[in-house]
Amino acid sequence: MHYDYFMRQVQILSNVVNYHTGREAHTIEVTDPYRNEASNKLYKRLMEMLADGKINEAENLLFNVIERGEISKQEALNLAFDFYLKINSYTDDYLSLCNFSRAEANMGWAEITKLCQM
Asked: Where are the beta strands (DSSP E) in 1-118?
């Protein structure tokens, strides 16, 4: 089992438990030792931008990096999965406050999966 897959599963399980128990969600943010340095830096930058409510800007950065081929397609998919997983953990009110929506997230994920087809 790959490390990043395992960590995403832990995060998903944690979110489900927190949702059903009414507890506040806690995010596990780690860099992935299987990613290269560029991917880890991009991941950290994306998570900082999300924390600052700059969802549109973060998504634009992710697309620009993918389109320029700065990371492999597999790394791009892994980062995009983590990115959109994080976005989907936000409330609709918070997304609206950041001028973003779940529909935009779904479209972004669909577009990235097309860009990264191997």
From this structure: none
Place of tokens 């780690």: 30
Q: Which helix (H) or strand (E) holds 10?
A: helix 3-21
Place of tokens 């191997």: 118
Token couple for 65: 């990096």
Tens-of-pLDDT digits for all 118 residues of the chain? 455 555 555 666 666 555 555 655 544 444 454 467 778 889 999 999 999 999 999 999 999 999 999 988 888 888 899 899 999 999 999 999 999 999 999 999 999 999 988 5
* Residue 39 neighbours by CB under 8 Å, 6+ apart: 32, 71, 75, 78, 79
pTM: 0.70
Q: Which of 13, 30, 33, 32 lies closest to 89, judged by CA?
A: 13
43 contacts: CB under 8 Å, gap ≥ 6: 31, 32, 35, 79, 82
